[in-house]
Structures are given as C-alpha cells and as structure tokens.
Amino acid sequence: MFPNYVSYIREVVERNRRWMKCKTINTRLLRWDQHDYVDLQNQFDIIIAADCLFFDEFRQDLLHTMKVLLKDTGEVIIFAPSRGETLKKFVNLASKEFAVEKCNKYDELVWDLHTAAQTSQANYQENLHYPIKLRLTKFSHVEGS
Questions:
Q1: Which residues, 6 or more positions from 17, have their beta carbon under 8 angstroms from its beta carbon?
Q2: 92: phi > 0 → left, psi -120 to 50 → alpha, else beta; which?
Q3: C-alpha–C-alpha distance, residues 142 and 77, integer Å
Q4: Where are the alpha helices (DSSP H) in the chain?
Q5: 108-120 in b/e burial notation, b at 16+ Cβ within 10 A?
Q6: SS3 helix, strand, coil % of the chain, rounded to 5?
Q7: Distance between CA 74 and CA 83 in Å, rounded?
Q8: Closest CA to 90 of 51, 124, 125, 118
Q9: Per-residue pLDDT reduced to its tens digit, 11-67
Q10: Are 138 and 98 in contact, with CB atoms under 8 Å apart?
C-alpha cells in the first residue's frame, strides 16, 4: 500500500522538476509511528501536509515527526477539512507543542470555488470538502522573534 504513495510523489516531483529551483529532490516513505528518521532531524525549513489528520491513532505521532524534522525557525503548513472533530482535535494537540494559526480564507480562487460549490453542488459538504489552512511554528521560534 505505502510504496504506491511514494511512487505518486516521485512522479509529481519529476513532472514538476523543471519548475523547481533546487536540483536535488529526494522522496522516501516516512512512517510517523516508526521513529527511524534521525538522519532528518532539524533538516526542514517547511513541511507541507494535506488531508492527513483523520487517523486518531497517528495524530500524536504526526506531531512528533513534524517537531523532530522541523528546524527551529521552520513552519508546517497543513491543509485539511474539519471532518467532524478531527481538525479540532489535531489543533488541540498541536497547540501544546506549536504556535498554531488557523485560516479559513487563504486564497481568493479557492474561496470563490468553495463559495460556488456550496450553492451549485448538492453533494458538497464544507465539513468534508473545504480544506482549512493551519500554520504551525515551534514555540522556541515564536518566543525568540
């Protein structure tokens, strides 16, 4: 199951390589519940994640992984729908280890599409389909700013 996700990411990287400024881009499987990523500790300026908050059993592992991988001055950007209490539970946990900013209207085009979908698509459910933007930064960086 997991190797398919990694191959999808590799394909996305290859398709977009010409637009990227850096020459070296690596991908690998990273299981949040297996802490085998010591070589990546404090290596990332930015971590981007999408729609990965809905597994209750992995929420704390995801936060731990982000905290370990992120540089002190880095930030995590997450896009995820509310999905019932899922987003709220994640924010509550994250707030213990990160400064968390939540933003509903972060892009005019996305907002316009969201607004149009609410009135034109019968199956559209904001709770499931509209991604909220979260920005996480380490407390040490926020306090030292």
A1: 25
A2: alpha
A3: 16
A4: 2-16, 59-69, 86-94, 108-120, 126-129, 139-144
A5: eeeeeebeeeeee
A6: 45, 20, 30
A7: 27
A8: 51
A9: 888 888 777 777 777 777 788 888 888 899 999 999 999 989 988 899 999 999 999
A10: yes
User: Do the Cβ atoms of 72 and 46 come closer than 8 Å?
Assistant: no
Tokens of 65: 């992984």
pTM recorded for the entire structure: 0.84
Give the span between the Cα atoms of 131 and 13, in whole angstroms: 23
**What is the C-alpha separation between 72 and 145, in angstroms, rounded?**
11
Give the H or E element holding residue 46: strand 44-50
Distance (Å, whole) CA 83 – CA 93: 16
Residue written as token pair 């316009």: 112
In contact, 100 and 132? CB cutoff 8 Å: no
